[in-house]
Amino acid sequence: MFATKRLSKELLKIKEHLPPGISIVKSDNLEEWLMDIKVLDENPLYLNETYRLKFTFSNKYPIEPPEVQFVTTPAAADENNATATTHPRRTIPIHPHIYSNGIICLDLLSSAGWSPVQTVESVCMSIQSMLTANSRNERPPGDKDFVSYNRRRPRDINFMYDDDNV
Amino acid sequence: MTNITLEDLLVMEANCDRDESVDLRSLDYVSSYDDHLMCPICHCPFIHPVRLKCDHVFCQKCLVSAITTFAASRDDFTCPACRTPTGGVYLKLPRLLVNMCDEIRVRCPFRSEGCEEVAPRVFIQTHVDKYCGYRPMDCPLGSCGLKTRKKDLDPEGRCLHELHQCARCEGNIMEQDYKEHVDELCPNLQTTCPDCHTTILRRELKQHADSCPESIHSCAASKYGCRIQLKRADLATHEQTCPLISMGPYFDAQNARLDSLELTVRHLKQRNEIFDDALANIRTTLAQSPTASAGPDDRATTSTPPRRNNNDLTSPNSQSQIDSSNQYTATTTNYLLSLHESLREEVGQLSHAITDLDARASMAIMSECLRIKEDMAHTNAAVSSIRMQVQWLLNPRLHQHQSSQRTGGVRTGTTPGGHTPTAAAGPSTSAIPLRPRRLSDSGREGTKL
Q: Rounded to an integer, what distance in angstroms lies between the CA atom of residue B33 and that of residue B39?
């Protein structure tokens, strides 16, 4: 109940105005939203690319953090054919803290680093700046193992947040 | 300002049961409010705001839920906005802030039931409690379980949810809606037609309007100018006699003809335009060839293009070739002419500039000459005055010399060692050859002045 009220208020605001490079793709229910983000500067790793984020909200949002991960469009095509055909394919951006299955290692999204004053907009902007600041063309160490063995949801994974640079 | 610990705040929140049936967070906010009046956690205007040490303000309820979810121990809790460790909570906030939040206007939560009330948020609870007639109330009959709008409640406390059968439409209607149904909504209700004043059933009103004999319609020939408007019954008789109706088919035929004629005219116009264009092209070709043949008179045209034109005219094998060659020569001629014109202009400008310069230079020379002439005159004057002085100075010497010559002429002849007279005469004899040089010297000094 709390979550839906807060989310409908956020949605109203987002539809009015969004910062550059962020756009809303799907928000027809108050449980799962899709957002598109672009890296705006000249970073050659992400030049001319648009990435899709999936937000999953629990009913305790914003007290609890939402689950945020990158998704590829062919996966989302079954539920949203129109966007899949009219837009180019979405991929997972290469980044030392983003696994190739789209899971993001960012303390902001953990229950320890989360704060209820964060919004969908502020999370998008944080991820945007995380991509902008990166210059390493690599996946996190152990990406292959993690991707093939992980069956847990992002919220159940205990990440170590050790890198303050990105 | 009272500062209480987080623990106290939690206890207070747990014990406090405010009598609030209205959820202020789910209200429909009519007036727009400033983002600064919005709790960053629930995004609503502050409801019972509290303040942390770091000056961030939250709703009391939002802060409590944040504290209970996050902090392992109460001391670890940090401000959700800035992550400053918080020691305590201030319960009192500036009245200004509270008032600004309170006066934001909201809709009555029972708008869906029909209440149109819009009131400042602080009064909406009172409105719902006391005044709102649309608030659903529990049925006085406990076993019923249904709700009734407050204004519809039976004063004697009867249950209004019993079904009654409508005598007209045979539908089952609850007692609370019965009156409205009978008065306004029942499809079998009898109403009167506004035109013919006959009594008909409500559900048939629509069909009746299409066939009502009393309703006013205009004549079928109204598009041809018949202005008569009559009741449907009389209209039939009118239409039998209306001259315009009988003319109708003829008018239609005429209209169709006019339309087709207009279409043809439009086609012809287009064709005409095309021909006009072609004619104009031919005319310009013809007009250009005589001027081109008279080309050699023109300074800018070269002699070759006109000759080619003449050839084409004498043997007109293809029209387009003439056109293109003519256009080509015309454009080159024009280009050359314009080039020529611009060059001529430039030359004119240059000659102007030259005469200008000439005049200026001669003026400068003239003035210089005048100055030099003046100087010369000065110098001449100075020279002549010096000459006068020298002569005046020399005069006694000459006299003396002459007299000594007269006397010394004897002496020199006698004594060769006559030193003194020669020495005395030295300057006088040297003064004579020196004279021209001094003149030039003084003249030079004069020009320097």
A: 12
Residues of B in contact with A116 (CB under 8 A): 40-41, 62, 66, 80
The residue type of B105 is R
Q: Which two tokens stand for residue B149?
A: 């709008």
Residue A126 in contact with residue A106, Cβ under 8 Å? yes
pLDDT band at B129 (very low <50, low <70, confident <90, very high): confident
**Best CATH choice for the domain A2-150 from the list 3.10.110.10, 3.30.450.20, 3.40.630.10, 3.30.420.40:** 3.10.110.10
pLDDT at B385: 94
DSSP β-bridge partners for residue B52? B89
Locate the chain A residue with the closest alpha carbon to B35.
A13
| ipTM > 0.85, yes or no | no
Nearest chain B residue to A3 by CA: give it.
B42
Active-site positions of A read 105
Mutate to test the interface with B, among A7, A13, A60, A63 (most CBs of B within 10 A): A63
Cα distances (angstroms) measured from residue B262 to each of B196, B248, B257, B268? 46, 21, 8, 10
A64 touches chain B (CB under 8 A): yes
Query: In sequence order, which residues have a C-beta less than 8 Å from that of residue A21 and are 6 or more positions away?
Result: A37, A38, A39, A40, A128
How many of the other CB atoms lie within 10 Å of CB of B36? 9
The angle subtended at Cα B188 by Cα B187 and Cα B193, nearest 5°, is 90
**A chain contacts of residue B40, beta-carbon cutoff 8 Å:** 116-117
Interchain contact, A117 vs B80, CB within 8 Å: yes
The chain-wide mean pLDDT, for chain B, equals 77
How far is it, in rounded angstroms, from Cα A46 to Cα A127?
A: 13
Residues shown for chain A: 166
Domain parsing of chain A, residue ranges: 2-150
How high is the mean pLDDT of chain A?
81
Output the pLDDT for position B378.
95
How far does A117 lie from chain B, in Å, by closest CA?
5
Any long-range contacts for A75-79 (C-beta under 8 Å, 24+ apart)?
A: A76/A34, A76/A52
B213 versus A165: which is more confidently predicted? B213
What is the value of pTM for the model shown? 0.50
Is residue B29 within 8 A of residue B111, CB to CB? The reply is: no
Contact B25 A5 (CB under 8 A): yes
Q: What tens digit of pLDDT does each residue of B319-374 get?
A: 555 566 667 777 888 889 999 999 999 999 999 999 999 999 999 999 999 999 99
Residue B39 C-alpha, separation from nearest chain A C-alpha, in angstroms: 9
- Whether A88 and chain B come into contact, CB under 8 Å, resolves to no
Contacts 24+ apart (CB under 8 A), B289-293: B289/B313, B289/B322, B289/B326, B292/B326, B292/B329, B292/B330, B292/B333
Token duo for residue B257: 């003809």
Q: Touching check for A60 and chain B: CB below 8 Å?
A: yes
Q: Does residue A59 contact residue A151 with C-beta atoms inside 8 Å?
A: no
